[in-house]
Amino acid sequence: MLGIIVGIVLVAFGVFLLMRPAKPAGGPPPIGRFGKLTNALGRRGIGAVATLVGLYLLAATSFIYVAADGVGHLKRIYAFSELPPGRIVALAGEKGPQAQILGPGFHFLPFVRVLYSYEEYDVVSVPEGYYGQLTALDGQPMPAGMFIAPAFPDDQVADMLDASSFLQKSGYRGPQETVLKPGQYRLNRYLFDVKIDTDTEATIIPKGFVGVVKSNVATPGVSCREEEVSTTPTRGALSVPLVPRGCVGIWKEPLLPGAYYLNRSAYEVTFVDVRVRTWEYKGGYTKRIVDLALDQQGNLQQTERRVDEPVPENAADKAVFIKVEGWDIPLELRALVQVSPEHAPIVIASVGGLDEIEDRILTPAIRSIVRNVAGSTVRLPLKNEDGTVSDPVQYEIRPTRVLDLIENREALEETIEGKIKTEGAKAGVDIREIRLGEPAIPPELLLSRLRVQLADQLSIAYERETAAQQKRIETEQARSTANEQPRLVESQIAVQVANQREKEREALGRAERKFLEELAKGQLAQAQVLGQDRVALLQALEKTLSALERRPELVGLVSKLVPNTVVSAGPGGEGLAGAAAILGQALGGNRPSATPAPAMQ
What we know:
By secondary structure, the chain is α+β, with helices and mostly antiparallel strands. About 40% of the residues lie in helices and about 25% in strands. The chain has 4 domains: about 1-120, no CATH class; about 120-275, no CATH class; about 280-450, Band 7 domain (Tetrahydropterin Synthase, Chain A), CATH 3.30.479; about 545-600, no CATH class. The strands form 11 sheets. Strands 3-2-5 form a 3-stranded antiparallel β-sheet. α8 runs antiparallel to α10.
């Protein structure tokens, strides 16, 4: 207002100076500084300057400059009409906040700074991963039962974010289902309040999960009728009412992995893990163990110890206790479970989530089934005498024994798995696999088996040690043989020479024996002809001659005997009488014979 008054005064003063007649020449000189200035510039110059300054001051009240990242807002001060009752933003120029906003740059509005007060707000910027939550401060009141205004149609969002269009098209006052996605927006801040904080983060469903939506609003034009949906057609399956997408209630179609800009005031999204998960039932008991060992004398020694098995933090529950043949045996097991995406809404609507399914439905069912199956009967394939399964396969059902938990574990797993799968399907959970862990069988039942196993192992160890010792002996023998090879060769040659000599002597002995045998035969024949005494005499003579042959000096002695002794055979005498006489003479020593020779005839 002050600028307008000053501007009007300056314009009037300038016009006055421009229209005043010129002063005659020769008049008195100007008095004072103003007079001197007037004289220097002239009345017309001063009038022109004053007029221009006044006009600028008047024009400045009609121009507005808006920054590039700002939004100009007007609030009217002077007007002839008032806002209607209950309205906050003016559409027709009434007093108060105006629906019109000013964009970047210069704007000319006559006396805008006189008739309006001006404010500038920053452009609304929504970062990535967030959405802007809108609240309309003006508009039509919501109908009864509606707590949030329905979302704008996608093709009308830009138009409804304009304040004039929003008010003219009867937008509802209050929280809006429509949200601002990441980007920049020029909004009338007198109409829209925008909230961006940690509560307005985008709904990001990671891979391996689906989102079950509970909607508090309905999309106009969508046919909404509840439908009874069940997990399986079997008796006892979970069954809940679900609605199509866009209706109030739990949607029967879950949201798949991705980013969604859902107004959390309108939608509640529950994540459901549809990956395969492992539920373990283990721990919560004390395990008794008997250790077998050998003392220095080779005797078996047994020692009992106890080990506490705590329940792991990530376990679904403790081990299942079963009763078999009167023994209480803790049995650990592992279950692989998975919730299919189409069953996720049923799980959420019926019990609240997979954890609730685990605690309320499946864990009690698993415990009951394991106790009933493992503690009653087992179905086993019949085997032939050689231990092979019969063809075609036939089965027998018999009472379960304790050792079946080890020897026939697969058969028990198959029976338990089939029954638990049925219970899981009723709850909307797929049981992929059931695996039994190592049972804590009382050591009294395993002691004999352990002794046999240890004895077998010792037997194998002894056999291997014996084989190793034998191998070592053979190796040492081979090494010694290699070291003594020269001597062995000499010994072998000596043995061969001795064998050859033995064979030679054996041959000579056989020849000598043959000679003697033939000689004896000849002597026997000779004795039969000549008589024994004469044969003996001949043999003596033969030996004498042999002696003379070896000792020639005896020949002289014989020569002395020849001229001194004459031997002749008497009537009927033998041919050997002469030889006997000579021999007798030789042995008697040059004594003449007392028997005279008979006279010759």
